[in-house]
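Bit of a strange request maybe. I'm writing a small parser for structure token strings and I need a real example to test against, not something I typed by hand. Could someone generate the tokens for this chain?
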Amino acid sequence: MQFHLNGFEPGDPEIFDRSERYLASGAQGSVPDEVDVLIVGCGPAGQTLAAQLSAFPDIKTCLVEQKPGRMLLGQADGIACRTMEMFHAFGFSERVLKEACWINETTFWKPHDRQDATIVRSGRVQDVEDGLSEFPHVVLNQARVHDFYLDVMRRSATKLEPHYGRRVVAVRPAASGGDGAAQRVTVTLQQLEGAHQGQTETVTASYVVGCDGAHSVVRTSIGHELRGDSANHAWGVMDVLAVTDFPDIRCKSFIQSAHDGTIIIIPREGGYLFRLYIELTKLETGERVASRNITVDELIDKARRIFNPYSLDVKEVPWWSVYEIGQRLTDKFDDVPEEEIATRLPSVFIVGDACHTHSPKAGQGMNVSMQDAFNLGWKLVSVLRKRCPPSLLHTYSAERRAIARELIDFDREWAALLASTHGDGGGTDPVKIQSYFVRSGRYTAGTATHYRPSILTGEPDYQHLAEGFVVGTRFHSAPVIRLADAKPVHLGHVVEADGRFRIFAFAGAGDWAAPNFGIRRLCDFLAEGESPIRKYTPRGEDIDAMIDVRAVFQQAHRDLAIEAVPALLLPQKGRYGLRDYEKMFCADIRGGNDIFAIRGIDREAGCMVVVRPDQYVAHVLPLDGYRQLASFFDGFMLSHSE
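Reply from user aminoacidic:
Good idea to test on real output. This should exercise your parser:
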């Protein structure tokens, strides 16, 4: 899509009438007095969490935001491959793919060997390695990501809308009862807009989630602070509509000049807009960049010097800012000190920039924040719907802080590599930057996350059965053919943001119609009264309401008879008992995309791959690993009789 030709316009570019592109939004009236979950902050993290919770009408959620309305101009713009996979689970990846700028190649520029006041291209690489994800790395205004989430929320069972113009005044964390059970959290809000400006409102919640940024009031209320070191280096960033003869302006580009520092070019959506990250200056210890009073004209002048011998005629700057590099992290992502985990339950959580901050240039901030929220969301759903005990919520801080620590270490090294030693270009090494970029591709794509063994992530004792589905990493999708209608699909795309676990059963060798065939015996076990499916599915709900079972066969789809498959793979659902025909898949043999070969699945034995609601591989087990499967779910789920 091409747009922004005659100036930057926020909102949906497919709506011709500009006045209809950004209609007023937000909930009207007072906030509710009591809720299950109060989310503070309407950024990407807050909206990811709100969108997930909004799907459940029995969960009362309230989302509050200090700003007066929805975002029109965004700060972040990079959307990692892993984030696109998550967007598909929420149902709007296609909209992002259509509107965003796809980052296909990255180029590298250095000072000319004989004329160091000018720059020359030193390298070009593919931005994302082949096979890393079915989705590309894309770039899109953060405000549009917000719009897509807001649409999900409005169309949900709860028709959730944010309450804008509310500032958090105080958070009184819950006290624990004698049995360790958490009491309700009390939050005081001040209205900032309209006829009730200045008035306060009080909300009590079972859980409060602070998605309120680096200056988080929620974080302060539970006694945490961001700790870390600033690199004492200032950068500018601006989105521009400009005329230039620089040949790689529609590629992601890293430019190191000899005397004026570094620029990173990020092409933006619409075909004309692009973003420049511009290295500015070294700051003194304790100095803040705001004290320099840097202007947008200074950013433009610096960019022009670095672009030499190419021209840069800036026509419009829709948004710009200056900032300091810094990587900071809190000790805990909830309100329970480490030494009290055995006796207290968490009731206040912090997410995203409220608990970890990064430099913008690695593209981690928005992406990691949304993954934090996705991790927490399904756990809150499971606890509030009494599917899992409240102790499950301890796993949020344990899992996500470890990931944040790893990413901050990566970000610190990447930011240092990009920055000039003295802010004047000295000390940069284009070859080293290109090499590090290629080696670190899985971090920037968001696919390097690896959860360690816990109650939610099994030991990799049977990893050899599915080498491409690494326990603790995200479920790496691959093409398959749906048996019922021969439709080519991606297997991972059946995982929606609905709070359910999945069991993907990959068939082994043998006669699939025989009574002792591995898939058939597994289905017989799962249909029994003591199986995890029967044990944890509430009475009256569909058989796949908690654990969704799918089967993948090695044969071509025309070699299987759908009428002979186990009943569990053709479940009857809903008020009419209609059959669900989308539980069975076959290898895409004709298309040359055999999932068994691509993901290293043992063809003789087959296996089970258990996938968490946030799309991460929880376990790999043999097809007859009934005891291990039951033991895994027994570790954190509540039976419907409890």
